[in-house]
Design a protein that fits this description.
34% strand; 8 helices; alpha+beta; globular; single chain; 10-stranded mixed β-sheet; 6-stranded antiparallel β-sheet
Length: 294
């Protein structure tokens, strides 16, 4: 695979403005190592996707994302199922859950060293219609929390921002009726949430499906029944080590496909980005993406 020429796509406002500085440092180090490439800064939603498409159309096969899972999501959707396009990561967003799953260092200098080593690995990819995702797709209470973090913002950052919105969303969410079908069979009933994971965590380290493996060809699915608000708050704490999975109102399954329908229709989010309303079918693409890893 061609890892001699790259396009570095950076979100300059990610990491509270660290994205621009980190990407400039990365560009200098990559060029000092004898590699050829350019840095392009995004200017708004959708721009990372366009920049990635433009690079691929000119024959560039190595795309480096400097930002969070939202920036990566846009680039992944430009790459699609092309295993000949390599994705590199410099994590500096709110969550960085893909980078965490791949054990890419949070320290930016160490992350750039990973890029310079140019070791690759193929990992799984999820598909929902014509869209792709690389971490977790979810609908229900947690999706509403994620939406509010993204759209409303917070004076807090990272995990604390998600916790704040999780608390304030409690009184605003009504559990819908759902029908969920996968290799494990059919679930019918009311749900608090349903999460479908390639990675184990979302929201900056909440391990909603703690045993998920990024290249085993299977989604890990978490279905949580409606539970009292106080129980939800207690469960939020246990999410950081996966302790919620032992609760009697939590189900964990594995599947290659998942069909979800709810009444009323919920919105489905993946990688923290809005995908669209249910009903929908989520499909596994086994080792569908190539990434640079330690």
């Amino acid at each position: 695979m061609d890892l001699s020429t790259f396009r570095l796509i950076a979100n300059p406002i990610s990491g509270k403005g660290r994205g621009r500085n980190l990407s400039e440092i990365a560009l200098k180090k990559l060029k000092t190592a004898g590699l050829e490439g350019e840095l392009v800064l995004t200017t708004g939603p959708g721009h990372a996707n366009q920049l990635a498409q433009d690079a691929i159309s000119t024959g560039i096969r190595w795309l480096i994302a400097c930002g969070g899972d939202g920036t990566i999501h846009e680039i992944v959707n430009a790459i699609g199922q092309r295993r000949d396009i390599i994705l590199g990561l410099i994590p500096c967003g709110k969550g960085n859950d893909l980078a965490s799953a791949l054990r890419i260092p949070k320290n930016p200098i160490q992350a750039i060293e990973v890029l310079l080593a140019r070791q690759t690995r193929q990992i799984d990819l999820g598909r929902i219609g014509d869209k792709f995702f690389h971490t977790i797709a979810t609908c229900g209470y947690d999706a509403e929390v994620g939406r509010r973090v993204t759209e409303e913002g917070s004076i807090l950052s990272g995990t604390l921002a998600y916790i704040q919105k999780a608390i304030t969303t409690l009184s605003k969410f009504d559990s819908p009726d759902a029908r969920i079908e996968g290799d494990f069979g059919v679930f019918e009933g009311k749900i608090l949430l349903t999460s479908v994971g390639i990675t184990s965590s979302y929201g900056g380290g909440m391990k909603i499906v703690p045993d998920a493996v990024v290249d085993d060809g299977l989604f890990d699915v978490c279905i949580i029944n409606p539970i009292p608000s106080l129980t939800i708050l207690r469960m939020l704490v246990t999410l950081y080590w996966g302790g919620h999975t032992s609760h009697p109102d939590v189900q964990i399954h594995r599947t290659r496909t998942l069909c979800i329908d709810t009444d009323p229709p919920l919105k489905l989010y993946a990688d923290g980005e809005l995908i669209g309303p249910v009903p929908t079918k989520i499909e596994m693409i086994d080792q569908g993406m190539t990434v640079v890893v330690p």
